[in-house]
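Let us work through a complete example step by step.
Step 1: write down the sequence.
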Amino acid sequence: MTNIALALPLATPPDAGVGNDPWWVVGLKVLIIFVFLVVLTLFNIWWERRVVARMQHRIGPNVHGPFGLLQSLADGMKLMFKEDLMPKGVDKFVYVAAPVIASIPAFLTFAVIPFGPTVKIPFTDTYTRLQLTDLPVSVLYVMAIASIGIYGIVLGGWSSNSTYSLLGGLRSSAQMISYEVAMGLALVTVFLFAGSMSTSEIVAAQSSQQSIDLRLFELPIPGWYAFLLFPSFVIYVISMIGETNRAPFDLPEAEGELVAGFLTEYSSMKYAMFFLAEYINMATVSALATTLFLGGWRAPWPISVWDGANSGFWPVLWFVGKMMCFIFFYIWLRGTLPRLRYDQFMKLGWKILIPVSLGWILLVATVRAVGREVEFQRNYLLIGAGVLALILLIPMVLPQKKTEEPAQTAEGEDFDAFAGGFPVPPPLVDTPSRSEEASRG
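Step 2: predict the structure and record it as tokens.
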């Protein structure tokens, strides 16, 4: 009987764990992630141009390849063979290293993103988890690596020996500080509910219905944290757009103000590496949002009714589909919303997102603490979220006090640039030209 049991195939694949893979499996995973991100970048560039063209009643790329799919590859080859110019007066080492510093962290962040469950590698007897590695603090690892990429933008702007590039780099550093804080605070509530900072454990926590046992109008809310922690989800989505310097928050490369910002003095492959980092960072924050708020690689309803939806390689399809929804949201915003002013952008981060995040954390922590001691209906969490949203909307509904126009400065008095609350240039003084003086003489 024992021999028969040993001869039977395994009903479920053994959990190979993370970190126990052979060296060739690790190398294969690294290669697949690298190729996936490069191909995804080429596809996203084509997709963005096609979608925005459709929104603006244009055709978009349609010549190179079927439906213009090879247009991004043609643009990349053009940049590769384009003459590489280096302006005078730049710091050559930092100028060359900046694109590399910006692009390498973009690839490293995908090391802890789970794409699926444990599967069997085809044509072998090896089982492995569809994740390169996992850490007890995987989410903090992603935040730390993403913060390193900003150094490439700042150093690129500083080393270019250009005023526009320097201003674009400084804007990036201020933008990162503002929205990294809001993004980190939005993830605290996820840690409170999941009880872990591991990406794979957060995905597993969202598959359980116990942690989200609440009903709204007699309809069960799905197990994704995007529903239970909706304010955190909204704050994260806004912060991830500001973090990746995308429209309407693309102030570091505002072409109407700074030519191209930190990219002004770059060309050829250095220019392409900055754009590669931008599009991979879009995929990174979208993958992290999918993992933390949309159940990761687990199938959505009603596909989840199928027993085999969350086994084999099918979860990779669900994961990529959710991630592409976020990238479409990026493209949609770029095609519809105008760019914010810099003071509006900073006000949104420091005066709205961060205070709301702190209040939401206190509310969620209170619900979790009270829920452990007494029998507590988590519908109060929705009530608290509604109250928090009401408090946020009250200042927007109330009429704002109009700022008085600064009075004209009398002749002989010093001009106060900050009289109206923000710096303005001094008024022009009408002075007679040389031709008028000559005519008077």
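Step 3: interpret the result. The radius of gyration is 27 Å.
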